[in-house]
Amino acid sequence: MTGEECCLLQWAFILDMYRVLLDVGADIVVCYAPEGDPSELMRLMPEVSEFFPQSDRDLGGRMYDAIRHALAKGYRHCLLIGSDLPLLRAAAVSEAFSLLESSDVVLCPTEDGGYYLVGMNEPIEEVFLLDEFSVPDVFEKTAAAATAAGKLCTAGASTLDIDNPADLAKLVSRLKHEGTGVCTETRKVLVRIFDRIIA
Fold first, then answer.
1. Predicted confidence band at 180 (pLDDT cuts at 50, 70, 90)?
2. CA 150 from chain center: how many Å?
3. d(C-alpha 16, C-alpha 182), whole Å
4. pLDDT tens column, 55-98
5. d(CA 119, CA 83)
6. Residue ranges per domain, the chain?
7. In angstroms, what CA-CA distances link 80 with 116, 137, 138?
8. Helices (H), the chain
């Protein structure tokens, strides 16, 4: 894939996720890379409540700062979600919010041992103080960090995140068994890239 195709695919993932989050009915806050220009995001996602730049810390610090920023607005719960999740489902997001009624931390795992969603009712910095995040057991280590901090951590629904060509191949295969109303923007780009119908 070319750089342009990767960019198109990322945009498609974001738009498909945006529509899922609109279905959930939660306020959407977008935390974007500080070197980026959010104007196109603003144009394509007009119902987002706020756009704000990520901090300049490491990944754990950026995630913690994003949750702290959102909860400082007065929300009872905050879900921090990745941007490479074309198969994200509204039911999984709604479940994560529900789990926060009785848990301090919610973690939704990815199929490769990571996590795609972390939810909190208050900022808990200890959860983000890992040495590495791109390791196969980061979900387990993060859950253990929450428990060590004296917090009740509950797992939510799992999904596929797209990190490499093998993940993309899995996505293409799964979309063949999904209804055409799922991941509509991602399907368009995949058809353009691979020159075949993903249905």
1. confident
2. 25
3. 8
4. 999 999 999 999 999 999 999 999 999 999 999 999 999 999 99
5. 15
6. 3-194
7. 8, 19, 16
8. 3-24, 39-44, 59-71, 90-99, 138-148, 165-175, 184-194
Report d(CA 100, CA 148) in Å as an integer.
18
Q: Are strands 105-109 and 115-120 parallel, antiparallel or unpaired?
A: antiparallel
Question: What is the per-residue burial (b if ≥16 Cβ within 10 Å, else e) of 107-116?
Answer: bbbbebebbb
Residue 153 DSSP code: E
Q: Output the CA torsion 150→151→154→160 (10° steps).
A: -100
Pick the CATH number of 3-194 from 3.90.550.10, 3.30.565.10, 1.10.8.60, 3.30.465.10: 3.90.550.10
Provide the residue type at 108 as one letter: C
Dist CA 94 CA 13 (whole Å)? 19
What the block records as the tokens of 151 is 């917090």
